[in-house]
Amino acid sequence: MTSTPNTFDWNHIRAFLATAETGSLSAAARRLNLTQPTLSRQVAALEESLGLMLFERIGKSLQLTQAGVELLEHTRPMGLAADRIALAALGQSESITGTVRITASDVYSAYLLPDVLRRLRQLAPDLHIDIIASNDIRDLMRREADIAIRHVRPEQPELIARLIHEETARFYAAPQYLAKAGRPEDVRDLSSHDFISFGDAEGMVGHLTPLGFPLTKRNFRYESQSGLVAWELVKRGFGIAPMSDRIARQTPEVERLLPQMEPIRFPVWLTTHRELHTSRKIRLVFDLLAEHFFKKNKAAPGSGTA
After folding, report:
1. What is the Cα–Cα distance from 167 to 151, expressed in whole angstroms?
2. What is the mean pLDDT of residues 227-244?
3. Hey, what CATH topology would domain 5-86 get?
4. pLDDT confidence of residue 62
5. What is the chain's alpha carbon radius of gyration, rounded to the nearest angstrom?
6. β 241-244/127-133 pair status
7. What's phi and psi for 61, nearest 5 deg?
8. Which segments constitute the HTH lysR-type domain (predicted)?
9. Which stretches within 154-274 are classed as H helix?
10. How far, in Å, CA of 168 to CA of 187, rounded?
């Protein structure tokens, strides 16, 4: 490296973070309200100061190099710290009122959003929050929600998406089910067990089979479009289901299976309209959600039982 940390320009770091999170210079420039040449110069200046190549072009998109991945891990907390400062100043300097509508899955809405709502109550006591428990990204396109928490990055150019973190999931079951059906010792044993589907069973098979899990539609004895209903069936001993580790840690009624198994990984995207840049109340909620989910992701995973 040709520079020391105390010579870093925050604008260069901010340009790097936006580019890493959006995957393109044009999208990052729009997020920061900069021209693309200006943002490109800032990223290039950071690469020059570090003596490292942070991005490589793959087709029409940019991909982080290994050096870029490592830098992102160190600089993302800087971005969140800046967000916290802005949130604190915003909450103290002006009253924020009105309604912000957040859409997330029913499971996330029930298990993960309450902690955020407590913090929002402190920062903006006059703000009204409407939670839409839904898996449909079209809620944003129809303007039925302001902010969405989703596992798929939206493609619509009208939306802004930020990758918050990579979630992990494992298989869980209730002790009463395991007492009746036995405890699977390895992945191959899963084929003889009952499973519960979150949504369409064929869709879950299509997702899990390429990951090496020997399941067919016959394994899924029960399914529900409601994640809360499906998770309740797991808790009551009807079968096994994959679940986010952070949700399972809040569910003492279940046990984690196959502790030696590598976790299933999936992204969590925070999405909103371009109105984010002009609406103080939406920016407040968006940044607080980003901070909350990133911080929660630093929690140590459970060991054997949730």
Report:
1. 9
2. 96
3. Arc Repressor Mutant, subunit A (1.10.10)
4. 82
5. 21
6. unpaired
7. -115, 165
8. 8-65
9. 175-181, 201-208, 227-235, 245-248
10. 17
